[in-house]
Amino acid sequence: MKDFFKCQECVDLLTDYLEGSLEVEVKRRLDEHLAGCAPCINFVRTFEKSQDLTNRLREQQVNVPREVQERVKSFLKVELVALSSERQK
Amino acid sequence: MVAIMKVRELDQRQIVEGLKALDTDIIDDFVDQYSRPLFGVILNYTKNPSDAEEILQDTLLKIIKKIETFREESDIWPWMRRIAINNGIMWLRKHRAKQDRTTQLEDLLPKFSRDGEFDSPVYGWSVDPEEVYLNSELAGELYEAVQSLPYEYRVPLVLKDIEGYAIKQISSLLGLKEPTTKTRIHRARLFVRERLAQYFEGR
Asked: Looking at CA atoms only, how far is residue A21 from chain B in angstroms?
């Protein structure tokens, strides 16, 4: 194993690094690289930011077009008739 | 945080009883109330509107059919959300052959020189993550980025970073080994970061 990590190795290990699942020694070497590498620092920050933004897609509001909603309702009405006659049997 | 539903006309007990009784008025209100959040979940699995509509129909029907199995002491929204997610995944499985594979993941992973350094400069982004609620353009860009991931990367990423599932759950849901799931999520995250970098840097 080499003594110093390259940017590529840092990028490969980033998910494990950020969730804290790296072995102590590997983490130490990654920290060592990060301390002196501006591109990697930018990469880590933007990687985290990107993930944070992705998490927020969960709360995104969407619109359901009215005609979709109406079609869904008519679909369900037909299905419900079938369903209730099934139950009465 | 923005609540996902602003109007909650029916309470949970009314919904459960109405669905059990196949009460058409209650079911109409239920559709009005829950189509929107369910559609939001479903759109993470397909961006095609007519496919999403089909999945929505099927999801609502499943909810009605399965309502007897819902444990009433728990909250109904996560239960419905899970049904929508499962339907989305099942739909993708069935249709994955049809999916276009124009996006090559490798094209958008970071590039390195032979000695392992970044091939091109890495910039910081001057974006406040809080802005994402206000800025629908950014949300749209991000959504497109996630959607353009190949299926085998997109689903693990959606389940982890949007739905908040654990690696273990995702692996068993998709029949993958845990290290595979983790690798795919990692690569998908790299891809999404790269797409956003292009957006922020105006490339």
From this structure: 12
Instruction: Return the closest-CA partner of residue B141 out of A60, A31, A68, A12.
Output: A60
CB contact under 8 A, B31 and A76: yes
Query: Are A51 and B189 an interchain contact pair (Cβ–Cβ within 8 Å)?
Result: yes
* Shortest CA gap B159–chain A (Å): 10
Residues B93 and B121 in one domain: no
The answer to whether the Cβ–Cβ distance between B117 and A45 falls below 8 Å is no
Can you give the pLDDT at residue B6?
A: 45
- Among B75, B98, B121, the domain boundary falls at B98
B121 and B70 in a common domain: no
Q: Which residues contact A85 (CB under 8 A, 6 or more apart)?
A: none
Q: At what angle do helices B49-66 and B24-42 cross, to 10 degrees?
A: 130
Q: Which residue has the tokens 């009465």?
A: A88
Mean pLDDT of the residues in chain A: 89
Q: Give the pLDDT means over successive 10-residue stretches in chain B (203 positions).
A: 53 93 93 92 88 95 95 92 93 72 73 89 77 73 90 93 95 94 96 92 71
pTM above 0.80, yes or no: yes
| Contact indicator for B80, B35 with CB cutoff of 8 Å | no
- Which chain B residue lies closest to A81 (C-alpha atoms)? B22
Based on the structure, what is the number of domains in chain B? 2
Domain ranges of chain A: 7-88
How far off is chain B from A89, nearest CA to CA, in Å? 16
